[in-house]
Amino acid sequence: MWDWPIWDALNLPWVSKYPKTLEAYAERFGADIYEMANELIDRGKVDVLSFEDYLHQRYALLAIERTWDPRTIT
Fold it and tell me: Pick from 34, 57, 68, 73: most CB atoms within 10 A?
């Protein structure tokens, strides 16, 4: 019964042009795509972490733990 607003929203012109697959997203934006946070941290060479809510802090802390080098502190 309430599916029509979602359907209408997904058919907006700017949304319909948005990539629908990981491969299409990578090609459109010229970025590597990682399905899991661990892949990003291990292969993505993380320089900066930015997160907007509490749920993402776990991944930020994991990245810091895996990539932090105390010798870089000045």
Answer: 34
Both tokens of 19, joined, read 């990539």
Average pLDDT for residues 25-41, to the nearest whole number? 81
> What's the mean pLDDT when you consider all of the chain?
74
Per-domain residue ranges for the chain?
Answer: 1-33
pLDDT at 52: 59
Query: Is 0.85 surpassed by the pTM of this model?
Result: no
